[in-house]
């Protein structure tokens, strides 16, 4: 039996509810993941330290993404989409 991550499942469900009317893009290349990351982070309007706090990661972790040394996981990208959507809804 496959163990499922309840946090990842919750993020997936929230993402599906928020973005149900938008077409889903398939991100298959490393560059497109970083491009999406950059768009999402900039779209939040948050400073790096505030963004790290909202993501629940360290500033060093965010800097790894900024410098393209590591790429965000699918779950982290989902959380970024939700943070950006919340910011957009509150404006």
UniProtKB/TrEMBL annotation:
Residues in coiled coil: none
Tree of life domain: Bacteria
Molecular function GO labels: DNA binding
UniProt KW keywords: DNA-binding, Transcription, Transcription regulation
Protein name as catalogued: Transcriptional regulator
